[in-house]
Sequence to fold (467 residues):
Amino acid sequence: MTDAWGWLTTGAHWTGDGGIGQRLAEHVYVSGLALLLASALALPLGLWLGHLGRGGALAVNVSNVGRAVPVFAVLALFMVSPLRNAGYVPTVVALVLFAMPPLLTNAYVGVREVDRAAVRAARGMGMTGGQVFLRVELPLARPVVATGVRSAAVQVVATATVAAMVGQGGLGRIITAGFATYDTGQVVAGAVLVALLALLVEGVLAGADRLLPGPGRGPGRGHARVPKNRTIRRSRLDG
Amino acid sequence: MSAPNCLVTNDWICGEYLRTRRGELTDALLQHVGITAASVLIALVVAVPLALLVRARPRFAGPVLGLTTLLYTIPSLAMFSLLLPFFGLSAALVVTGLVLYALTILVRNALAGLAAVPAETREAARGMGYGSLRLLWAVELPLALPVLMAGVRMATVSTIALTTIGSVVGRGGLGNLIEDALPTFFKAQVLAASVLCVLLAVVADLLLLGLQRLLTPWVRIRTAPGGG
Fold:
């Protein structure tokens, strides 16, 4: 533990090529890009399937598939293919694939679990399908969708660590470099940094979730029924 | 002549690889199964008493659930690395990390399963003179089994995937083969180990589903006439 502290408090380890600063920047870059791409792909699809009420089996079963496929195996397959020469592409593609299940599932479930009475009332008032979706389903589904984004973000940050095991960038490289030189202090220091980043992302997003006014949370909006405890539980996918 | 060539040309699918490295593949698969089985079993043995404790003393609920959730947030590579000073490069390190992850799923599902036992059933058993131990063993645990088994299946499948990360300390089962193949871009080995890993997860899931059906025949009988 003192070795780890010593490693962390050595200024030279923070700057320069392969320093903590560079690895952290890589980590945040690939995680952010992957989350954006995955959201752009999965959220519209999940929301649309939820609106139609179709494809539920697909939206729910992708999580099971994601759980069975090790991300390390997917990254390794990319790294022995020509994709290995494409910079951060292997990591970003793998992260997008593993961020999609929570996004897709929560978007679908969020829309599906909107009180059917509210949807019928909106239709009875003469709203078109698009209006029902934008004015009723989407606002009511938002908390569940936001939970999905949060799960995906935490997921992506954790999974990006594994990229180091196939030689890609990110904070995990500090850990693998420590293993390569039998430097337990560096291994633990890297692990602490990775764990702190994951906890920070989780904490910040949980806080943001609480600050955002949502249907059923603020005063005067108590009539909108938000499904409680029906969010899809997170599962570990960074194998 | 054509058969050994796929090792030289580094093909994705190589029968010669599967034939000549059969022993290596079997050893890795057995290590993978061993680590996964040990992790899930230990987690189960710890999780059920923990769930019973939380149910009996609700003030433990916050700390137990909070701690397991906190542990769950730590990325797998970091988890194994943090355990390095305590266990060194050993299978015990990998198993400990995986137990900590599986605990989160199992404690929650054990609690949910116990909570799903109808209060009438519990009272009827008490009325029939069941003591608390017999009540637990003969009534509550069987009724909690479907939800608990759902947790066991989920924990097993994700543990199989997570075991590959154990290759960072050389105890990753099939993950070791993937790691060893990377420096030489050995495609056949990466693909074979990856496919075996996914197959192992699917087979384990189906076996556990079969076990669940065997242990809870009443669930199937009750739902069968309804067609689902």
Remarks:
- The two ends of chain B are 54 Å apart (CA to CA).
- Chain B is about 80% helix and 0% strand.
- The interface with chain A takes residues 70, 72-79, 81-82, 84-85, 101, 105, 108, 154, 157-158, 160-165, 167-169, 175, 178-179, 181-182, 185-187, 190-191, 193-194, 197-198, 201-202, 205 of chain B (CB under 8 Å).
